[in-house]
Structure formats: C-alpha cells, structure tokens
C-alpha cells in the first residue's frame, strides 16, 4: 500500500469512527420527544415517582433493579448489570433480549437513532 492510500484509509477510518460516535451520542431534544413513548409507565424530573415502571432519574450508572421502593421482576433484580449508555440503548431497542423475562411490556424503539436520542435525554436526568 502506498503512502497516499494509507493516508486516505486512515482519514476514512477516523471519519467512520467519528460518525459512529455521533450516531451513538444522540440528540437530547429528540430524546425528550422520544420519551413520550415512556411516560405511560415512567416518570422523570424533580417530582418523579415510581409508577407502573420505576422512575428513570439517574438511570445511567445505576444498577439494574435497584430504584428504591419499586417491585422489580426477579429477572431485573438478578440481571447483574449497571446501566451504561450502551446497554440502555440495547435495552430500549429490545428489552426482552437484554434482560429476558423482565416485566417491562414494551416491545422496543424502532431505530438505533431513536434509542441513542432517548439515552442522551435520560443521561441529563440526575
């Protein structure tokens, strides 16, 4: 491979990595809108409380099945995961695949972008 080809390959690789990072980081405002699909079961914000599902304040970095005063399924309590942006994106896309036999009755978001947007929004909630 000549020098020009290596440089072009390196630039293309760096550009691809940057695009992937941007795609996974999500858009907070679009995520706020995507959360509209979640409000029937979950609350967020200063006055959030557990409903049919647990409140989602501080979900990024929280151990699965650990929100106080919420009755989780055994599957969720024993999942042994800490919610990262990556596994949250996967969970909101296909909940039953990430934590089989969980009680969440949601079939998942349609796109990776919508999942990334939702997680970007959830990340802002402490």
From TrEMBL:
Residues 26-126 form the Cytochrome c domain. Residues 1-23 form the signal peptide. It comes from the Bacteria. SUPFAM superfamilies: Cytochrome c. PANTHER family: CYTOCHROME C. This is Cytochrome c. GO terms for molecular function: electron transfer activity; heme binding; metal ion binding. Keywords: Electron transport, Heme, Iron, Metal-binding, Signal, Transport. The keyword Mitochondrion does not apply. InterPro entries: Cyt_c-like_dom, Cyt_c-like_dom_sf, Cyt_c_1A/1B. Transmembrane segments: none annotated. It holds the Pfam family Cytochrom_C.
